[in-house]
Amino acid sequence: MDALREPERRIEGRAKTTGQARFAADVRVAGALSVAFARSPFPHARLVRVDASAARAMPGVAAVITGADVRPARLGRRLQDWPVLAWDRVRFVGDRVAAVAAQTPAQAEAAAASIEVEYDELPSVFDPDEALRPGAPVLHPDAAEYHYLNGTREAVPHPNVQGVSRHEHGDVDAGFARAARVFEHSFEIARVFPGALEPRASVVWLEGDVFHVVSTNKSPFGLRDQMARALGVAHERIVIDSGFIGGDFGGKGLSIDEYALTFLARLTRRPVRTVTRYVDEMRATTTRNSGRLTLRTGVDADGRILAHEARVVLNGGAYAAGQPNVKLVPAESIMTLAPYHVPSARLEAMTVYTNIVPGGNARAPGQPQASFAGESHLDLIARELGIDPLELRRRNAIQAGQQDVRGHVWRTSMIGTVIDRLGLEARWSEPRPPGRGRGVALGCRQSPGGVLSSTVIVSVTPDASVEVFTAIPDQGGGARTMLQRAVAAELGIPVDRVTVRRGTTADTPLEAGVGGSRVTPVVGGAAAAGARALLGRLGVDAGAEVVGALERAARSGGVRVEGTHQHTPGYHSTYGYAVEVEVDRETGALTVVDCVLVADVGTVINPTALRGQLLGAFAQGFGQAVMEQLRIEDGVVANAGLGDYKMPTIADVPPLRIVLITEDRGDGPFGAKSVGELANPGVAPAIANALHDAAGIRITSLPLRAEKIHAALRKGAG
Fold this sequence. Notes:
It contains 19 helices and 31 strands.
């Protein structure tokens, strides 16, 4: 454990700060061609004719492919419903219809612009409720042809439904019948862009019959298998190298360009590369789903929850390709009353096809939507009942052995401790200054999710150091540093005697990648297991004897072991926000003047990275709360550019006080809990609740922009 007390230094920090780190856009392969795409200007249309003859004759052009050249290849993480290039119809503005490989990016762009496409416009639908109505245009009449990976797709109630997630436990009807009061409220969440600083980039080349792919994808083995299925080749013929990844926030689980690039590489027998422009990132890659949520809750006379219903309808956009979950719905979208005891619940969430930019996973998939609705709903109940909002949460806080809203029984619960500490840190019982209001929101995350097993290789190197070899990328979360510190702590040696090396899908054990808050508990668990296996092979206990054993092992040719961890989930990370705001009644301007986050994080492995994750999550949640919205007008993204989209800068984000609760050990290495996706969902409801307290208005849709607040204030005054 001494290694966990050493000052934290990011293992890749020097490479990044000196410019030596190789990101996908930095990869240069001799003779590589640049690729550009021709895209649809219509949200829904039949392709009548695609004429690429002029493009093929332009200077520098090596190859042009259209949908006819790739049919029937479709891409997707679970449901492969997105054509690599459209061949019969386009389904959103920005859908790809052709790809050009040329000597320079400018030549490729010019050739793509010269491609003539004749469209026959079809009726479009942009709203999910409209898409579910009788007579709505069916956007995927060929759905029977789609590949569903690793299982069988469940039946859907309407052809425009991507997927449905349902849950029910307890006697819901009886709970409502016993209730002293029943409350129902509806909420709307805007579409937002994940916002990774590094745009997607990819390079593809052939060596013999093997495709080598450098990608910004954070799940390299998943991409390998998805490409193999889409292209109809053995997965051994595809090697994925994820390199360094400059941010993710959920968006880089889906790759799009790599598929077309494989066709161009095969056709030209030359390397091909592309770097996505930000405008195309925002108008033609996956975003966080917008949606409407309707919540209904019955409570007793003291405000304790007896029964709860939720209907969540998410706008999934043109394709379900970005949805990795079995049910094709963001997994946490039904966590509407996440940290509370809910004895009976009936929940339904669905994603719906529309003719806009596709939706997909983003940080804490589905949870910001559910948290804004659930915590706003609970606050409205508290105010209607005349109960202090923090007290109502205390009465309903889940305890060990109780069921939550999804029917999960909690092994332990720190939510009561979080509430008590939050009230103290926020001075909740003290009078509010004039013109200000306070709001609170609680949340939790059961982690990890997704694939719960991992294997890493731990070996003794010729210089008597220890190397951890893995396929796990580091998209900025500090995975490599965590692995280094976990192995050093298990062995009882200084961290500088442990290195971490990342390989490709060709030379590392199978690894599910980054997602579901799984890296620390699952991959970290595998690294810790590998360290223990190494101790067994060396025949020593952790501590002073290890260094000598490493030196002996190095002299005799080294030692190599595998560390495998099969995780059993069940622990929860919990948190609470308390926010104080001030509202300018003349302009509607909202200012956060104080904010505290109390986070139950278990044992801290990477203290600097942990704080960075919480601060970053707060900034991301703050942006979604008060400014971020991907505006779509008649199917067109109207603010496709960071100048118009308005993500928060350091000047916008208010100070945050962070209080850590570490006494409840989690199920990660040394008792760690996951924090990467913990803290962004609760920001928006805390601010909305504080706004209500300050100004007496309830905004039920995000973002909470000044013009919306101003209109509500004027309406209230009238």
